[in-house]
User: Fold these one by one.
Assistant:
Number 1:
Amino acid sequence: MSDLTSVPGTQPLLQPVQLGALKLPNRVVMAPMTRCRADNEELAPTDLHATYYAQRAGAGLIIGEGAWVSTDAIGFINVPGIYTDAQTAGWAKVTEAVHSAGGMIVSQLGHAGAASHPDHHGGRLPAGPSAINPHEMSFTPDGPKDSLTPRALSAAEIATTIGTYRQAAVNALRAGFDGLEIHAQVSHLVAQFLNPRLNQRTDAYGSSSEKRAQFLFDVVDAVSSVWGSDRIGIKSPPTGITGLPSPQIPRRWPSTTSSSSASTTATWPTSTSSARNPTRELTTPSPHSPATAPTTTAPSSPTSASHKRAATRSSNGNWPTRSPSAPPSSPIQTSSIDSPTAALSPPTTATRTSRVARRDTRTTPQ
Ligand SMILES: Cc1cc2nc3c(=O)[nH]c(=O)nc-3n(C[C@H](O)[C@H](O)[C@H](O)COP(=O)(O)O)c2cc1C
């Protein structure tokens, strides 16, 4: 794909586009695709990952394969994580290779939730919003196994889980990614929270569509506290899990645009606020902070453009603040942009529901 950028500039797909803070050289966005190649004890990306992604750096943007935010998030074999130093260092090699080849790459943060199996958790049941079997399939070291009835996450566990997303966002920043995508589709934990069949909670995270979306909102707040709001996207499908209709994501803030779709596939904010300061964030109390101070350290000598940008912003003292009632910036769809005109006109909303192929959950984690 790396020769795409050399094609003469009449093809709309090959025109540049601004996506939040990212200026993409073309509109080809590579979908996140799990390859199950982290076949090592650490679940760390390997040199093969770096080669694979660098080979695809001609795309305007690469969405990295879903990466687990914690050990509790695991639901499939050989899928890399982004919660340890070794994993972060492995991803740093990937981003370095992609940047060296002229590309951009964002990290997709994933959590399998109930769509997992005790074999991934030392015999302990995985947890979801409620104790309801999602009837998914989990690939374990012994092969594919049916999901079981999970534990329901306690309120404290939900707070801890949100903290793991935040720490993963810190690690993604340290690894030199250009942005983040929250995996909120099909069988993943965010989609489980959004799904009225699987989420029967009666607390702040269930019983209405607004409350079912609270987990996603909290995750967005947590990762935005690390990255700012203009490099974060959400992948949410027009179809729900196990064939149910799409989980509707309610609008959290008053609308500032004339159109929106509750079932967009991927939305990206376009806020101009881009302050990111992981060092400061590590010392700033947050409702989503893990109970103990994060111990992850930055991979050795950051050299990527992202690292340099982050360092610059660290020194200017800016920090993104947002009142809960403030309107969000308008979302832009990242994948499958089919209207170059709309996509070229931020901050108006450019969303559409894309065709999403029905997946075979028995062969591929998504
Ligand atoms: C091998 C494979 C692995 C995939 N892994 C992921 C993944 O890690 N995260 C994700 O959000 N989607 C994943 N997907 C789904 C794709 O990103 C994409 O949404 C899907 O293929 C439908 O594409 P379409 O919307 O262009 O039809 C995967 C798809 C395939 C075929």
Number 2:
Amino acid sequence: MRIALFGATGKAGGAILRQCHAAGHELRVLARHPGAIGDADGGVTTTAGDVRELSAVSRVINGTDAVVSAIGGTTAANLAVLDQGTAAILTAMSQHGIRRIIVIQGFHLPWPGDPGNLGQHAMNAVLRMWKPQLHPDTHRMASRLRASELDWTLIRMPRLISGPADNHYRTGSLALGPWSKVTTGQVAHFTLRCLAAGEYVRGAPMIAASSRSRGDALQPPLFEVSPLSKNPSLETKE
Ligand SMILES: NC(=O)c1ccc[n+]([C@@H]2O[C@H](COP(=O)([O-])OP(=O)(O)OC[C@H]3O[C@@H](n4cnc5c(N)ncnc54)[C@H](OP(=O)(O)O)[C@@H]3O)[C@@H](O)[C@H]2O)c1
């Protein structure tokens, strides 16, 4: 598969880059600092640019089969990057006739069918106070995605920690809270699962780490993640 990836220098995006690469997918990446992305083994093409620039986004997306966005970092200097970046991505996808997109965001975003537990409300309240620019940006982005007629999946995760790719995680409508967590490798594994199997199209599953001791059903891995390349930026950091 040819995948356009946004946010590849970040925690989730980096793990997605490494797993996609290990699985043999071709990657087209947009990065503000392309030097941070290497391509020792081939298979990764990097374009310099900002995700809010439609022309750069369009160049990356043209000719791909699917798009993954793990963009983050809303600040006063990087205002509305999620909403405006997602707007540019969706516009470019429509222009080039590409339908499938996976977006990585937080479980604070409410969705029909959620348990609506205290933990999610608490997380929303914390974010609203702690990151006043990020909170509205995530909500606007989610509304924009939901209104799109493309084949989107919004993966909603709790606190992201470094960790290996495995399938010891739960997905769906989960009762999560500030105590919940998931590993970078698990988010990448689930992203690839959604891409490969067409899971959760027009859905917004949460994901969280589970443990064997809780008796969660384990699924066979889709692929083995092997050491990738001699290039440090592509090596597994989990
Ligand atoms: N980490 C968590 O615990 C957690 C939990 C729940 C939800 N989330 C959300 O999930 C998403 C992914 O999380 P993360 O921790 O992997 O994020 P991250 O490490 O902060 O990575 C953000 C990525 O977005 C890129 N980016 C930011 N502004 C950009 C711009 N204007 N143009 C192009 N690229 C830009 C960054 O590139 P640069 O290298 O150029 O900065 C980086 O690659 C974020 O939206 C985050 O808010 C995170």
